[in-house]
Amino acid sequence: MKGRFFRFVLFGLFALALAGLSIAQEETPGVTADTIKLGSFIAQSGPVAPIGIPVVHGAQTWYNFINDQWGGIYGRKIEFIALDDGFNPANTVAVVKKLVEEEKVFAIVNPLGTITYQAVFDYLREQGVPVVSPHGNAVFMCQPTVHTAFSIQPNNIAFGRTLAQYAVLRLMAKKIGIAYVQDAFGTELNYYVSDELQKRGVTPVATVSYPGTETSFSSYVLQLQQAGAEAVILLGYLADAAAILREAETLGYKPKWLGTNTITPVLYQLAGEAAEGLIAEGFATDPSTPYHPEAYLFTMLLNRYFPGEVPSGYSEIAYIGAQMVTDALVQAGPDLTREKFIAALETFKDWEHGLTPPISFSPEDHCGIEALWLFELRGGGAAFLEEWDWTQH
Fold this sequence. Notes:
Helix content: 40-55%
CATH topology of the largest domain: Rossmann fold
Number of helices: 13
Oligomer: single chain
Number of domains: 2
């Protein structure tokens, strides 16, 4: 699905005429003659704020650009209301009810978090509110398919099975270890990694789990070392991955490390040279990639609206999600309803914007990206290895 900017040119030429068009919108929440109101719950205070604030800024960047460059969508300016839930599910419930029942938003877009989304998932479905591009990988976000819910990010099935397949098929590892954090994220990933390995006839030589509050990883690393794991799949977050790598370096243990999308080149800042050679999954272009037109546009626009902000994967994914929202709003037409918006999303086939693998939806499948990009941490950065579609292996 190409030609996004071409479509913008077309509807931009007719924006003034359409702005004066009187369209009855009494039955469409959040839509007036001159406004489309979009809502979100995103932590902007507390420990998750360093993620949430870039998410807000990435999404707001694109919505601002559409408002400033094109006058909105068919003459309607986008109003993006991102309320702070502090990454607390109890707060999320109150925030979402405010957005739906008081603000009467058209849709929830770019929301942040698995546990927060889970707290309001059923409510939003019952209210018929479209949800587009949540920031999270949990399987429930798109499987089973819910009519109103659309994910862009790959889910933990893709992340888990890809890691297992790559360890077996590319690294040819015979002795594989797993280390995972004991929360919903780590446990779900471990299930799909372990299940895929079993399908390949491989039994992990060691599987260690640790609480999310753990600060000492020596015993876990020692178990992996003593089991002789030649490849270790890390299913956790940056801080614990860095602690594991540092401990392994102290012990002189040097397996091939693999990690999911929570691990980025920032790992070098936490683990130093111990991060070198780790293979990680991802699904978005590094915003700093030179000579990349879409990465350049993103970086330029982010700097325009939020001067001095360093582009990150968090802001970039929010920006991409916002692009998808506006494309669907354009395709839904000037007589906007939630059902037309949903129907538009369900026609997206190999939707391209240059920053992720193609994204496809259908009435039966709202999961978005299936293929992942694999990178190896080298020299303080990430070197692209290959694209991997777990459904084809």
